From TrEMBL:
Any matching Pfam family: DAO
Residue intervals of the FAD dependent oxidoreductase domain: 4-327
GO cellular component assignments: cytoplasm
SUPFAM superfamilies: FAD-linked reductases, C-terminal domain (SSF54373), Nucleotide-binding domain (SSF51971)
Lineage top rank: taxon: Bacteria
Protein name in the entry: FAD-dependent oxidoreductase
Length: 348
């Protein structure tokens, strides 16, 4: 089989790269082993701000412009609904926090995203003495539904194999092509998430792992139609269910859920909602984070047939659409990558 690209991984990075190949009529084949769960378990929120530090996400305006266009194209391709615009209401624990919001909303980089108008709390089950701050241009993508649907799409097109990718089986055919298990390609793009720590070609990159766990609750009383931020995120899923979290654990690098995380989230939730709830699920995954909090894009410095798209952390929904396009243009047309995300930054 001859293709233009082999994609390794079917998380958010992999799907975003595949989508760019689809849009440009490129031939490809996908390998995935389901070892990485970060995209599948994510809350799927697109949020242009860091509400703890009151900073804007890097290149937030450019990223947000591409989000609806990109995911609407995926919805059309798969024939499903994935994206929903939802406001984020931030709870203030004090007048001081509310004042900090007012100051932040006047900063040029945050002004497009932090509303100056506070939202009164009309939900008797949310514990707060202040109005809410509203984050603008936010929403959610159902990442688990997207992965399942895209996998089915690839299987039907005979472009997918569920198996462990063995880096040792790569054969370099000079400087222009590459082979893997009978498939000839121009380039292999590694979208392995935290699994890239086992990739011998990109082991020099400072990929870090940060485990996140969410619980899924059911509550007939809560009746919330927005994303609630109060230390935790409380995200409506429909049918009286909500995803709540997340934890951050830099030590545990397993995908298993823990009682410790469930207890931590549950206790925090009880401090911000007054109604009864039942825990009906729990998920965990390792976020692929980086030392400088910027993703990894680019070709391998020696093996130019190898490329990487990784390191989105918790900002994949926002960044994957623009950065997958940037990497595609780089690979096809040799356009420059933003220096902030170019992996060559680690060669100097």
């Amino acid at each position: 089989m001859k293709v233009d690209y082999i994609i390794v991984g079917l998380g958010l990075a992999g799907i975003s790269m595949i989508e760019r190949l689809e849009q440009n009529n490129k031939r490809y084949f996908v390998f995935n082993d389901d070892s990485q769960q970060a995209t599948k378990t994510a809350a799927g929120i697109y949020n242009p701000t860091n509400l703890k530090r009151y900073t804007a996400v890097w290149n937030a305006i450019d990223h947000l412009k591409e989000v609806p266009v990109f995911f609407d194209q995926i919805e059309k391709r798969l024939g499903i609904v994935l994206r929903k615009d939802l406001p984020i209401y931030r709870r203030f624990a004090s007048i001081e926090e509310q004042n900090n919001w007012i100051v932040a909303s006047d900063k040029p980089k945050l002004a497009p995203f932090l509303s100056n108008n506070f939202i009164p709390n009309r939900n008797n089950h949310l514990i707060t003495s202040q109005d809410f701050g509203e984050v603008l241009q936010t929403g959610r993508v159902d990442t688990n539904k997207m992965i399942q649907a895209y996998r089915s799409y690839l299987v039907k097109k005979d472009r997918y194999k569920n198996e462990l990718f063995n880096h040792a089986d790569i054969v370099f055919n000079g400087n222009s092509s590459i082979s893997y298990k009978g498939i000839d390609a121009r380039t292999i793009i590694f979208c392995e998430g935290y699994g890239a720590v086992k990739n011998p070609f990109f082991s020099y990159l400072p990929l870090q792992g940060n485990k996140g766990e969410y619980i899924v609750i059911e509550s007939e009383e809560l009746k919330m139609d927005f994303i609630f931020k109060a230390g935790l995120f409380v995200v409506p899923l429909g049918n009286d269910q909500y995803k709540v979290g997340a934890t951050f654990n830099r030590e545990d690098k397993t995908n298993g859920t823990t009682q410790e995380a469930q207890d931590e989230i549950s206790e925090k939730l009880k401090k911000i909602v007054s109604c009864d709830f039942k825990i009906v699920g729990q998920v965990a995954g390792i976020r692929p984070t980086t030392k400088d909090r910027k993703p990894f894009l680019g070709r391998h410095p020696e093996h130019h047939q190898l490329a990487i798209l990784n390191g989105f952390g918790s900002r994949g929904i926002m960044m994957a659409p623009t950065l997958s396009k940037q990497l595609f243009d780089h690979l096809e047309n040799n356009t420059s990558l933003d220096k902030e995300v170019d992996i060559n930054r680690y060669l100097t």
